[in-house]
Amino acid sequence: MKPFNPLSGNPLVTRDDFAKACTSLLDPLLPSLSPGGSAVKLGETGTRYDEIAAQVEGYARPLWALAALLAGGYSWDGTKRFVEGLGNGTDPEHEEYWGVALDTDQRMVEMCPMGFTLAMAGDHFWDGLNDRQRANVAKYFDITDKEMPNTNWLWFRVFANLGLSKNGYKYDHDRMEKDMNHLDTFYRGEGWSNDGPEDYTQMDYYSGEADPTRAEKFKDRARTFALDFVHYFHEDGRAIAFGRSLTYKFAMVGFWAAVAFADVELPAPLTWGVVKGLLLRNFRWWSKQPGAFTPNGTLTIGYTYPNQFMSDNYNSPGSPYWAMLSFAPLALPSDHPFWACKEEALPTTSIPQTISVRHPGHIVTRLGGHTFLLSSKQRCHYPLRAAEAKYGKFAYSSAFAYSVSTGSYSLWSSAPDSTLSVTYGDDAEWRTRKKCDTDSIAIIDNTPVLTSTWTPLEGVNIETWLIPPAEDTPNWHVRAHHIKTSRPIKTAEGSFTVSNERLGDNRELVAYEEGQEGRYGSESEAFAVSRSGAVGIVDAGPTRRTGETMNMDSNSNLLLNRTVCPLLLGDVENEARYISLVYALPAAENNEWKSTWKESYNKQPSIPQWLKEKGF
């Protein structure tokens, strides 16, 4: 039994296909729309903000797509009810009034898609209101004196003013200019922006710029950013799962949607056909993820299945509909180059297979059959749920998504995949890398290397080197760790995870037998092979460890609800030098990988000479 996926069966090739996809996601919302059309309630889970604001979110976020749909000349039967909702929600005398926006109020966030809608589909939304209702909307959008976080929230006030200005109504031009100027201070270079001031190191999928209202400066930044950002997508359409807000799902390709919407021609080899392919292939991948939707066809909190563990404290049942901003190209006419061109594949022969990206502190590679990154800089600037998993792991993949902690008093619930975990004893919490004390990218022997120092526990100091795959051993990356501790600790280092379900009977993996699915752990290595691929980790350092496979806590992984992780387990008295060889090969549809994976697994990478010179 599977949930209903509204995108299933849609080829997602033409503009009309895309419009049909849009309405298929809008239609399931109508039964949950309030009588006055101003709120959408899709579930009972709570957030850090009030319930009315959560239901306003459910109303507002689908507008990203509806506005583009209407601007592109399409229609939708539920439009009138959403227009009525805007009038009722901003009317202090109506029973469905949203309530005035206070300082740092979630209601201000939702003014962003509303402002976009007024700007793009004013002939439906603004013209559909009477004079009194328009005055109410303008008063509601007047948040000039409201306190806002010093982050991307400032965009929300910009869009509120933009919606009014596009309809010739009075708006706060000076406030809009000040906000835009301040947002400009978040810019770090090469198209990348922090989600806040200079001392923030957090860069999510929101971190590139492609805004049509600030003219050529933003377009130039988008052109530069695109040359980096293209590396975060695999040929099959999916993006690397990294950072927060991944419940927004195909909002990951919102940048490419904005590039098209803003009519930004990108530098070679990023043609219109490439941009179109990046967007549509991602949608096609989501069309094959039934768990991303409820049985009613609405989006779930989670990544590819319902999952509260990976959610953020600001995720309501309506939050995932931020994904709808990726429908922005529907506003373009059918003869625009984006729609008129033929879709093209990722230009893998024209862009490097491995690249270091300075601003987010990443090394990104397509070697090994999946696109993944090594990371040693990112952290969230506030105590976000599962922040150490969303930003602090060593590696993030398009094929092997990361896991989040479901608890910390057991190793299996602490999400040890793609990281090094440490604890003081059997009854103590396991800790992983949450932030880096120092970080850098260096080129050593023509290879980019990430170096970081970090302190997971008081008295435990670790220096880590992350080395991407070499072309002759494309399925392996190398990690090295120099540990100094003031008291004895236990350590556990994990590879990526794979499905812990066998083909045929869906039971958990058993001991590996040649040519079969299974799991294996020995004195110095561990690996697991299943329907989702093969992963493993091998001990190659002077301080020895033991291999083991471990069932991860259910629902800890973003992609799969039952997973297994190969680990290396060790004990450190005072000092240790670890080298880990980490293997990964994702499953492929032709199933040839099942008979060939062991060959690439047995061809392990050599230890760089410069590491040996450091005592490894």
From TrEMBL:
<feature type="domain" description="DUF2264">
    <location>
        <begin position="352"/>
        <end position="613"/>
    </location>
</feature>
<dbReference type="InterPro" id="IPR049349">
    <property type="entry name" value="DUF2264_N"/>
</dbReference>
<dbReference type="InterPro" id="IPR049237">
    <property type="entry name" value="DUF2264_C"/>
</dbReference>
<feature type="domain" description="DUF2264">
    <location>
        <begin position="14"/>
        <end position="345"/>
    </location>
</feature>
<protein>
    <recommendedName>
        <fullName>DUF2264 domain-containing protein</fullName>
    </recommendedName>
</protein>
<dbReference type="Pfam" id="PF10022">
    <property type="entry name" value="DUF2264"/>
</dbReference>
<dbReference type="Pfam" id="PF20938">
    <property type="entry name" value="DUF2264_C"/>
</dbReference>
<dbReference type="InterPro" id="IPR016624">
    <property type="entry name" value="UCP014753"/>
</dbReference>
